[in-house]
Amino acid sequence: MSVSFEEREKWDSFYKTNAPDQLPWETGRAEPDLAELIKQGVVDEGRVLDICCGLGTQTIYMAKQGFEVYGIDISSTAVKLAQERCSEEGVACHLTQGDASDLKYPDGFFTFVFDRGCFHSMSPERLETYIRGIHRVLKDGGKYYMKCFSSRNGNWVNSFTEQDIRNYFSPLFKILEINEYTHVENTYGQRVYLYGVLMETR
């Protein structure tokens, strides 16, 4: 099932009507755990994908670390703004508007996929298709790092327990590490709980 027109419009409206510092997920800086993975050499050299890249904050950071970076987002407005930011920062990234649950990249194209909030933004009926797509575009032994809402946040539509994550991903991925993080949103100062999960393709 592909993403609906209504869902595309919903996400695009976020970027059309809010300044970057009013977007709850936009920190304006590299995610510390992503920076640590790169510092530790966990991310292999080569092509990497920032899935649901938004305004390109993590995309730009990875490009500055020497990776060939691709980004995809459902919002054409977000992609346009991310392209402008890439130009301002003097980095070249391959950015595309598209459906993250229907990736058009070749098999085994990436060494690493970074997902900050994309998995938990998928409708439940698209989750398994999304996971298969991530697995397909990663090379053998490629790494996938995901941050998603923890069930500690309460009855949110897409929040997960650690066991939920294992059930969804274990058929195709070896789970290397699961940690829990907190994030204070820009808009309301609300504290949310996130799992950070490092995986490797089987």
Structural write-up:
With 202 residues, this protein is an alpha/beta fold. The protein has one domain: Vaccinia Virus protein VP39 (Rossmann fold), CATH 3.40.50. The chain is 31% helix and 28% strand. The protein is built from six helices and seven strands, in the order H-H-E-H-E-H-E-E-H-E-H-E-E. Strands 3-2-1-4-5-7-6 form a seven-stranded mixed β-sheet, sandwiched between helices. Strand 1, helix 3 and strand 2 (68-73) form a beta-alpha-beta unit. The longest helix has 14 residues, at 76-89. It is globular and about 40 Å long. The model has no long low-confidence stretch (mean pLDDT 93).
Structure summary:
By secondary structure, the protein is of the alpha/beta class. The chain has six helices and seven strands; from the N terminus they run ααβαβαββαβαββ.
Q: How many strands appear in the DSSP assignment?
A: 7
* The top level CATH class name: Alpha Beta
Number of domains: 1
Approximate shape: globular
What is the CA-atom radius of gyration, in angstroms?
Answer: 16 Å
The CATH architecture can be named as 3-Layer(aba) Sandwich
Cα end-to-end separation: 25 Å
- List the uncertain runs: none
Q: Name the CATH superfamily classification.
A: Vaccinia Virus protein VP39
Oligomer: single chain
- Proportion of helical residues: 25-40%
For the biggest β-sheet, the strand order reads 3-2-1-4-5-7-6
- What is the strand content? 25-35%
* H and E string: HHEHEHEEHEHEE
CATH fold node name: Rossmann fold
What is the average per-residue confidence, as pLDDT, rounded to a whole number?
A: 93
